[in-house]
Write a structure and sequence with these properties.
This protein is mostly helical. It has 4 helices and 4 strands; from the N terminus they run H-H-E-E-E-E-H-H. The protein has a single domain (2-124), classed as Orthogonal Bundle (Non-ribosomal Peptide Synthetase Peptidyl Carrier Protein, Chain A), CATH 1.10.1200. It has helices at residues 2-20, 22-56, 89-121, 134-148; strands spanning 67-70, 73-74, 80-82, 85-87. Helix 2 crosses helix 3 (89-121). The longest helix has 35 residues, at 22-56. It is elongated, with a radius of gyration of 34 Å. The termini are far apart.
């Protein structure tokens, strides 16, 4: 019984060490920001980019594009009893444009980070040599005195 408790404590300690590592926290922040960024890009695509494209194509709203495989079934009171079956390829087009914009933005961000990293890797000026020790200075002075005699 004691062995299970110590094993459980080890597991908790290991998990705590894992969760508190900087990489895990950074990854969590990245996922949260990435989700928010995805929503922004989806809004830009659906609300800003696609309407003018749809207008150029004759007033087409991309989310309305679909192939109906089976029409809905209605009763006498015009209530839908069975939903229509359709392939919504307009939503697919919209999602594809979202993906391409997000992928391009990530590519540009990584490209910028790599450029900054390369600038950091360029070695700075070579450091000045350390000053001579007291012994070297003293010996140099003795040598110069002997030369002058």
């Amino acid at each position: 019984m004691l062995n299970q408790k110590t094993t459980g404590m080890k597991l908790v300690d290991e998990f705590k060490a894992f969760a508190m590592r900087g990489n895990v926290v950074d990854m969590a922040v990245g996922i949260i920001i990435g989700g928010a960024f995805g929503k922004i890009v989806s809004s830009v695509v659906s609300d800003v980019i696609m309407p003018p494209i749809g207008l150029l194509l004759g007033g087409v709203k991309f989310t309305d594009l679909k192939i109906t495989l089976k029409d809905p079934i209605m009763d006498a009171a015009h209530n839908i009893t069975t939903q229509a079956v359709a392939i919504n390829y307009g939503n697919f087009i919209q999602s594809t444009v979202d993906f391409l914009i997000i992928a391009f933005a990530i590519f540009m961000m990584i490209k910028g980070m790599n450029r900054l990293k390369r600038k950091e890797e360029v070695p700075a000026e070579a450091p000045a040599p350390p000053p001579p020790s007291n012994e070297v200075v003293l010996l140099t002075e003795i040598r110069d005195l002997l030369k002058n005699k």
